[in-house]
Amino acid sequence: MRPDRRRLAELTGDLSAAGGVRLVTLGDGVERGIRALEFRTGSGLAFEVLVDRCMDLGHAEHAGRAFGWRSPTGFRHPGLHEHNDEDGLSWLRSFSGLTVTAGLDHTLFGGEVPADGYRYPPRESVRHGLHGRAGNLPARLTGYGERWDGDTCVLWAEGEVRQAAVFAENLRLVRRIEADLGGDEIRLADTVTNAGFEPTPHMYLYHINLGWPLLDEGARFEADIRETLWQSDSVAEQKADHLTFPGPIPGFVEQVYEHALVPRPDGLHRVAVVNDRLGMRVAVEWRAAEFPYFFEWLNLRSGNYAVGLEPSTHHVSGDAAARQDGSMIWLGPQESRTYHTTFRVESAS
Question: Is cis: bond before 246, omega within 30 of 0?
């Protein structure tokens, strides 16, 4: 139930009794020094915004039941990240949380691509790691708090992430996160701008990761799938069900699918994971025109048990293929792209 502003003022001298946003700093292990914003809506929805990790969403729960995935890496401080180590796979050493942003100029697997557009002879090419740099870049926190819009109290935070180098890309991400006091949804609005003056490649993907107890044996994947365009070889080898999930499997090899979804009449795509035993559904909605592609990541390995929902600007084939087939997004000087995504916790009944 959303609280009435006057009634809430009568009942408590401080809004934090009902919910709010609090800035804290994590203090131990590989997470030491990370600023986090703790959101509580008062409905049972609580989540973290990891300011120093691209303002991604970390821990997330509803009524004490977690739905954001927690991997063994923890929310590793970006100062510990080695972008080019392990042939670009070092991203996997800091891969955890409800969302991990991929981009801003590259997503999916790494590789080497030409850099001639930056007109700096010593930089002949750019070498990318898995899913790019954005998820391990700290944000400049530009504001957070609570504001009233009539009788609706909006909890909010905003920050700016810069991915830049001299004689290379100069990209700026402005991220705004909102949730209503008494509400059960998280709204994410991102604007990516080429702040430089050379045409710059842009690829973008959200790795949205759901874990236990929402994900459990018998939990279901809901999506209006028109066609599965691609799947990893591991699908045929293992034949694990990607619509009704089994429990953890030792040694499981990730299964990845690219699904073509049917957009709703309102122009949105919607997918969800449902746990009937818990009576809980977590749905994700985004604008089909902004993220026309979608991947399902099935990671049923014991100790890493998760399912990933991945709206994307590009096909699964990645950077080099996008340049070759003409589908790469080239942002001109001062040109922007905006993305809107909503996470909603619902009853499964």
Answer: no
Q: What is the pTM of this model?
A: 0.96
Q: CB of 187 within 8 A of CB of 121?
A: no
Q: What backbone phi and psi angles, to 5 degrees, belong to 113? A: -130, 155
DSSP run (H or E) holding 61: strand 56-62
CA angle 306, 103, 322 (to 5 degrees): 105
Report the number of distinct structural domains present in the chain: 1
Q: Do the domain assignments include residue 115?
A: yes
Enclosing domain of residue 87: 18-347
Structure tokens at 191: 């604007």
CATH code, domain carrying 251: 2.70.98.10
Q: Is residue 181 part of a domain?
A: yes
Name the token pair of 179: 């949730």
The per-residue pLDDT for range 24-82, each reduced to its tens digit, is 999 999 999 999 999 999 999 999 999 999 999 999 999 999 999 999 999 999 999 98
Beta-bridge partners for 147: 154
- Pairwise CA distance, residues 81 & 94, whole Å: 7
The residue assigned the tokens 């049972």 is 44
Separation of alpha carbons 159 and 176, rounded Å: 7
**Is residue 11 one of the residues assigned to a domain?**
no
Q: 314 exposed, middle or buried (CB, 10 Å; 0-12, 13-18, 19+)? A: buried
